[in-house]
Design a protein that fits this description.
With 136 residues, the chain is mainly alpha-helical. It has helices spanning 2-20, 37-53, 58-82, 87-112, 117-132, and strands at 31-32, 35-36.
């Protein structure tokens, strides 16, 4: 069962990575840390899925909590700057969030069903709420 969940998580992560780069858009004008807005969104989604996939126990949930808090803060900063982007860039970020949301929610459900889901629940619910704000 654990192997199956791991394989599903890996498949979801690979699918997410493959889809987030679709579209072939030119780099967007907002940059932070050497990444444009689209690349930053991709990086945050990748980090979210990788970190969520690593949560398999109380200890790993506790260890992941600071990473999820940081990722949530970065998503919030990205939303705060979204209005400074072109319409095309805003649409791209919204599309990335829309493509990522089903996999994120599925992986979160997997973790949330376990006893250690309580540790991450407030932060993950905040993160999902923040990403929902980016949806078209």
């Amino acid at each position: 069962m654990k192997t199956r969940l791991t394989m599903i998580t890996v498949f979801a992560f690979v699918a997410l990575v493959g889809m987030t780069g679709c579209g072939g858009n030119e780099p967007h004008e907002l940059e932070r840390g050497g990444l444009n807005a689209s690349d930053l969104m991709t990086s945050l989604l990748d980090r979210t899925m990788t970190t969520l996939g690593s949560v398999t126990s109380v200890q790993s949930a506790e260890a992941a909590l600071p990473a999820f808090e940081e990722i949530t803060d970065e998503f919030e900063m990205l939303i705060d700057t979204k209005g400074d982007l072109s319409e095309e860039a805003q649409a791209d970020l919204s599309a990335q969030a829309a493509r990522a949301m089903p996999g994120l929610k599925d992986n979160w459900r997997r973790v949330n069903m376990q006893s250690y889901g309580d540790i991450l629940r407030p932060t993950m619910e905040e993160m999902i709420g923040t990403l929902t704000e980016m949806l078209p």
